[in-house]
Write the structure tokens for this entry.
Amino acid sequence: MNKKKLGIIAAGGVVCVAAIAAYAVFGWKGMGKVSGLHLDLSSPDAMIVTKSLSSLPKDLLTIPLARDVLREDFLFYYEQNEDRLGISGALRRIAYEHELLWGDQLIRMVLDEPADVALWRDADGSLKHFAIAVSRSSFTRLLEESGKIALKDSQMTVAGSLKVDGDKVPVYALAYGANRTLLFAAHGKRLVILSHPGMLYSGADGKDADSKAVDVVANMLEEDPKKSQALRQQFHLDGQAPSGHSVAVKADFLSFGYQPFFGALAALRFDFSKGHWSTQALVDAARLQSGGYDNKALWPMLPHNPAACFALPADWAAMAPVFKRVGDKANADLSKLGEQLSGPAAVCWYGSSRLYTPLIVATRKPGASGDELLGALYTAAVGNVAAGAVSKRAGKSGETLWQRAVTTPIGEQTPTLAIKGQTVLFSPDAALVELALAVGRKQSPAIADRLDDASRTVGLIAPSSLSDLIRKETFDALPTSREPVLRAAADVHLVPRLDALKKYPPYRLVLKSLPKSGAAWQSVEWQALDR
């Protein structure tokens, strides 16, 4: 379930959860062997700029949708999180034994200040690793006391050092539980906390430092905002004073690595302030295809009433290496296929189908033929001589379809590719392709029938249908006979949240404008539709 998101809004929620926790650290005990994480610290997957980490959960719950889905126990969970309690206990013990005034105060000191939080995905795809950077004048005293403690304490040790503005700055390791250690370093008014020692070190003795990571952390400790806020600049957040909370997530993370399908969409941002929230998209004008991000041709092809549907500014030229790799496996040259496609693509999920069987729609350039290339792509990706031949047939109104029955661990599917004029449709669920073809024959309503500004509509989300789809997937994965405990937990905790979602109307996401040059944040409006 960790990758089954509630559309775009749930993706933002996942990032908030990962960042708000800020305590779910996994890692390293003592000065033994450290397994390097091989993260690129100069390129985080998500960024949070906040006026106060401690107020983020509470402020998030002022938003009706978040409050109904997360409930108050979300706040209490992160107040009583095992890792936070472990860190708090370790600091209290250190403060008591060494007669220091700080203990729990240090946690409050960090969480109550404006902060930058950078997050990186782990090997399993979750945003597990983070770095917190804050500024406060009292960190100078913390640095002095930490140096004295590290000489004689079993839980706080010196892990290494780095250079900041000509000064040698020690990096401390705080072990606060079994296989749980974080790193921190302070210089002047700046403090940086790393959730895992492997973000900076590796090797049998834990002393091998990643030079690129060292430079990133050293910059975060600089007083000069141009250096200390370098990670913000990747998200075009540099110089932005946190009046509330901004959560920015790169499209590469949201797309699970399928960035070419997102093309000019570089990131999404969710801003929270004083009980209000807004959404923005970071759009790179240089990567927009000819025709821009005009979606009016897509929505008339798509069946109405999707659970979630998004128009993606696909970069078909960037897909050439993918087409080539797929073709090489089937001894077919598909490298030119991207030249036949143009404009945005759409991906839609429907309550009548499954989460893993979306409908994908794209358009070909005027005059492009190349049915053979698309058929070869289908055969290369789906076809398997040993499993059965691919069938090619004509549809009811002259369209061409490729199909093959496929047996999977979750049942039999019939992945279907169809071409109707300049429209290309694909889904693992043949029924969705047939429904889309019926829309083209005017035998079934289209999404466009409910839109008055289709060209700038970039997505639709129907919380009620999405709730039913998630419920179906969850309970199919948790049969009572085999997973009684998890099924009971889902009944108690998940079902009320899904029921709360059902009361919200469908929403249309509208991108009102595009940048004329360069990359810039553009407002995305959430407009309620009649049920």
Q: What stands out?
A: The radius of gyration is 26 Å. The chain is about 30% helix and 25% strand. The longest strand covers residues 167-177. The longest helix spans residues 484-501.
